[in-house]
Amino acid sequence: MKLNAGIITNKLAETKEFYTKWLGFGVKFENDFYLLMHTPDEQSDMAFLLPDHPSQQPLFQKPFQGIGVFFTIETEDVDKIYDDLKKRGVKIVIELRDEPWGDRHFAIQDPNGVGIDIVRYTSPED
Fold it and tell me: What percent of the chain has pLDDT over 90?
C-alpha cells in the first residue's frame, strides 16, 4: 500500500514552482486542474487539485483553508538543506534546532500554508 497526500488549492502554478525550485521535486503528471509531483528520489508523490472542478465528486471540491496540515521531509543532511534554502532566500519559519528527543529539524511553508518540517531523525543518544 502506498499513500499519496493531496491538497485542493487554487495555487497550482505557485505550488509547482515552490516544490520544483526550492525542494527539487519533479512533475509526474499535470493537466489544467491536477498536478502530481514526486520527491527527488521518486519514492513519494503529492497531488494538488483545483477546487470546484466539474470532473470531481463533492468530496474533492472544497479548497484547503491553509491550516492544520504539515508534511515531513526526512533527510540525512538537514544542515545542508537548511544552509542551501537560507542562502537562496527561502523564508525559514522555524530555525534549525535540536529537539530533546533527538530530531534535528527546521520548517518552511508552502504557498498553500502547509508547514514543511525538514528533519533528520536520530535518537537522543546520537
Answer: 90
Q: What is the distance, to the nearest Å, from the Cα of residue 118 to the centroid of all Cα atoms in its chain? A: 9
pLDDT at 93: 98
CA distance 53 to 25: 25
User: What are 66's three cell numbers?
Assistant: 491553509
Using only the alpha carbons of the chain, give its radius of gyration.
16
- Residues of the chain above pLDDT 70, percent: 98
**What is the Cα–Cα distance from 15 to 38, expressed in whole angstroms?**
13
Residue 37: φ, ψ to 5°: -120, 155
For the cut 70, the answer to whether the pLDDT of residue 125 exceeds it is: no
CB 61 within 8 A of CB 51: yes
pLDDT at 91 over 90: yes
Q: How far apart are CA 65 and CA 53, in angstroms?
A: 17
The amino acid at residue 3 is L
Place of cell 499535470: 30
What is the pTM (predicted TM-score) of this model?
0.91
- Point out which residues pair with 30 in neighbouring strands: 35
**Cell digits for 120?**
533528520
